[in-house]
Specification:
Keywords: Membrane, Transmembrane, Transmembrane helix. InterPro entries: YkvI-like. This is Membrane protein YkvI. With 348 residues, the chain is an all-alpha fold. Helix content is 79%, strand content 0%. It starts with a helix and ends in a 9-residue tail after the last helix.
């Protein structure tokens, strides 16, 4: 029973780290999958296989390496010399994503709760410090709460879609996009999310003694991600093509269900922003601890202050500037990870 409990924690932490604000709002599902029509069902299956396969491989490699941070992993994949430059770029990438998440939290407070943007930033920083102070154990607990909440929400969205006349769109909806765009989308989606998730998955693999926990946790996490992608696609495709005009497509799916469900939805969005924020912050902290002679607490405080300063630029401007560059880097990283052969893909 203890082993199954750890497997569930690893699986939920994997899923919670990958599934961020873009997923919760529906934008990622819409842009990477649903707009490509009925082919999205197969491309989501490809993404799900990649998440299971590469999630397991990443954590087992980290376990064998006893990796402390993604720096150790990049040294293995790229060599020491090239790995230094990759680590530097990964550091900048994670700082960028972390700042975008913090800015997104401020935007949720401003747009949904009609509270000052700065309140959202400061509340998130204080909450993040409380979690990061406790380390990996607290991250596991947070994701064990957030992921079931997200699963319940996505289940409710599917239930609300079931009776619609257009509920079969996910199997029949046509598209004019090229085959290259359609089949590249699951690779890009998996690459970006896995490269960012390594900040937590690598230390998690390095700290977990039982390989079977990582193996089955990777399967569970990948399945959860795939199921939630498919469920979101099913619900969004039933509202195509009109749904594509909205900034928060998921919000439109529950707009007629009353304020309670809308409040839960806002909570889900914020929770997913927060899990991604603390995951990247944890990855940055573990990496910097290998180079800077400061305490864990001091590094966390410096990073939180830095993200607070940069987040003043706002959510949208940061998102449109940073993400395209990160996507190209992530695809190269995933290709190298797939091609790496020196690992043992078994559970004992």
């Amino acid at each position: 029973m203890k082993a199954w409990g750890r497997i569930i924690q690893v699986g939920f932490t994997y899923a919670g780290t990958v599934v961020g604000a873009g997923f919760a709002t529906g934008q990622e599902i819409l842009q990477f999958f649903t707009r490509y029509g009925s082919a999205a069902t197969l491309s989501i299956s490809i993404a799900g296989v990649l998440f299971i396969w590469m999630g397991i491989k990443l954590m087992l490699l980290a376990h064998d390496l006893k990796a402390r941070s993604y720096e150790d992993m990049n040294a293995l994949l790229f060599g020491r010399r090239t790995g230094r430059w990759i680590n530097l770029f990964t550091l900048v990438t994670m700082l960028g994503v972390t700042t975008v998440m913090l800015a997104g939290a401020g935007s949720v407070f401003e747009e949904q709760f009609h509270l000052p943007y700065q309140w959202g930033l400061l509340f998130t920083l204080v909450l993040a410090y409380a979690v990061l102070y406790k380390g990996m154990k607290a991250i596991l607990i947070v994701n064990s709460i957030v992921v079931p909440l997200m699963l319940c929400f996505i289940g409710m969205v599917v239930w609300n879609t079931w009776s619609l006349p257009s509920s079969g769109n996910w199997l029949t909806f046509s598209t004019d996009y090229s085959l290259l765009q359609i089949w590249l989308s699951p690779m890009l989606y998996a690459a970006f999310n896995l490269s960012m998730a390594q900040g937590v998955l690598v230390p998690l693999g390095g700290q977990t003694e039982d390989r079977s926990v990582l193996y089955w946790g990777g399967i569970l996490g990948g399945l959860i991600i795939g199921i939630m992608l498919l469920a979101g696609h099913y619900a969004l495709s039933a509202r195509m093509p009109g749904i594509i005009q909205y900034d928060i497509p998921m919000g439109q799916l529950i707009s007629n269900l009353g304020w309670i469900w809308q409040l839960i939805f806002i909570g889900v969005i914020y929770s997913e922003i927060f899990t991604t924020f603390i995951a990247d912050m944890f990855g940055l902290t573990t990496q910097l601890e290998q180079h800077i002679q400061l305490s864990h607490t001091s590094i966390v405080l410096v990073l939180l202050l830095f993200t607070y300063i940069i987040s003043q630029f706002g959510f949208k401007s940061l998102l449109t500037t940073l993400y395209p560059l990160f996507g190209l880097f992530s695809l190269a990283w995933l290709v190298i990870l797939i091609g790496h052969r020196k690992h043992r893909f078994h559970t004992n």
